[in-house]
Amino acid sequence: MRLESKIALVTGAGGGLGGATAIRFAAEGAKVVCSDLDLAKAEKTVAIIESRGGTAIAHACDVADVAQCNAQVAETVKHFDRLDILVNSAGVSLHRLALETGIEDWNRVLNINLTGSFFTAQAAASAMLKNGGGRIIQIGSISGQRGNMGGVAYGASKAAVMHICKVLATELSGQGIMVNAIAPGPIETGLSTHGPSRKRNYNERIPVGKYGSAEAVANAALFLASDECEWTTGTILNVDGGYGAQGVSYDPEEISR
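^ thats the sequence. predicted structure below, dont judge the formating
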């Protein structure tokens, strides 16, 4: 049990990456607060955890509202007396060309993905300092590292989330709070809205040759949340099947020519 006796708050835990992470953490002994905008979805994740012998509670939170970001941390501490781990997974996707992105689109994506992530991390860090440390894991994206078409708002929000990770690590690691980020590549989740040509484009450029799973991201989060992550901080961990590492590829028969 790598997270035995730990208390974790996972945002966006109603499904996708957040749901898989909450379930994985509970399987490793953590007591989990499953936070989501849709309380019914969060309760479904809790039901899965409880059916497997774990402990979890559901909490409704709109991370675009800073007061609710603070409240979900306060609720965690009230119910479990402490907070050891935060996974900021709540997010929204948007695929729209830059010249077609309006202010409402822009504000919605940044308020949820960036502002909500930061202020939840801020509140969590304050709670963790009272316990002598903790783990904060931000969910970024390879879209925050690459100039993907249609990704101006989403990519900007995720690039900023990963930058915040480095700033928080710089400021908090000396006080026992390790802060890291995961940058997933294309993952098969309910948030994915990739059309056939986009999927084909990705699959041709991922060295592993296929989309990833939410469980693969959850496994990476488990390491970053564990005691094994005692000297890893300010790191952006790409979980992307090698997409970010790949340069120019050739047919193997052409390489020796």
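Residues 103-129 form the longest helix (27 residues).
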